[in-house]
Design brief:
The chain has helices spanning about 10-15, 20-25, 25-30, 35-40, 55-70, 75-90, 95-105, 105-115, 120-130, 135-155, 160-170. By secondary structure, it is mainly α.
Length: about 170
């Protein structure tokens, strides 16, 4: 089957949006004449129907450019993995059961949040765990108080622990 001599509309859109470097291979783009892609870039957006939505689309495209940036590849894949996990959990467990699970496993949530690197914005994780900064702070304080109790307990000698437990149990 013979190929047409004109370019696919998606290729034209890539050039008009300035995404050709991120989306198209260089082996393909080097064969496109400069005059051709210059024309695609210079076509005014007002010429087309729906041009009133161009501003919103431009903002979304800036986000797409960030997603496609090689420097952020690892962070982007981690974000999308996180989003997939969130959707699966919400579909499988449900929002109410997820909240109950989080409430029952506060220590695990706090421990997870504390292990996040400093450059990660925790507000996304607050939303994932149905928290806000205040409720997370309360959970963290409770968690740290429990850790302090356990560390204080470790300071007791084995003899003191057994005597304390015998007094509580009453044997």
């Amino acid at each position: 089957m013979a190929k047409y001599n004109s370019y696919h509309s998606q290729v034209k859109i890539c050039y008009s949006l300035g995404l050709e470097e991120q989306l198209l291979p260089q082996t393909f783009t080097k064969d496109i004449p400069r005059s051709t892609y210059f024309q695609w870039r210079q076509t005014p957006s007002g010429k087309y129907l729906g041009s009133e939505f161009a501003h919103k689309i431009d903002g979304d495209l800036e986000n797409i450019k960030l997603i496609l940036d090689e420097k952020l590849r690892l962070l982007t894949s981690a974000y999308f993995s996180f989003c997939r996990l969130y959707i699966v959990l919400m579909d499988f467990i449900g929002k109410k059961k997820m909240k109950v699970f989080i409430k029952q496993n506060r220590d695990l949530v706090v421990h997870f949040m504390e292990k996040l690197p400093d450059f990660v914005d925790k507000s996304l994780f607050y939303k994932f765990f149905f928290l806000n900064a205040i409720s997370y702070g309360q959970m963290k304080a409770f968690y740290q108080a429990r850790l302090q109790e356990f560390s204080d307990w470790d300071l007791f000698s084995a003899k003191a622990k057994s005597g304390f437990l015998q007094r509580i149990v009453g044997t």
